[in-house]
Write a structure and sequence with these properties.
about 15% strand
Length: about 50
């Protein structure tokens, strides 16, 4: 997003919105889960690296 991830000890709204948008796009394109036991899945990691 070009903005700080954390500001004043809290996650910024810009990052939350970016994360939500990308989660929705990933689920529409690939389907499946984003995380397994709190760890990103391999497909989701590959998707994020491609951005």
């Amino acid at each position: 997003t070009g903005k700080n991830l954390i500001y004043g000890g809290k996650i910024t709204k810009a990052y939350e919105n970016w994360k939500l948008k990308n989660h929705k796009e990933f689920q529409q394109k690939v389907g499946g889960k984003l995380y397994y036991k709190g760890i990103p899945t391999k497909k989701y990691e590959m998707y994020l690296n491609s951005l």
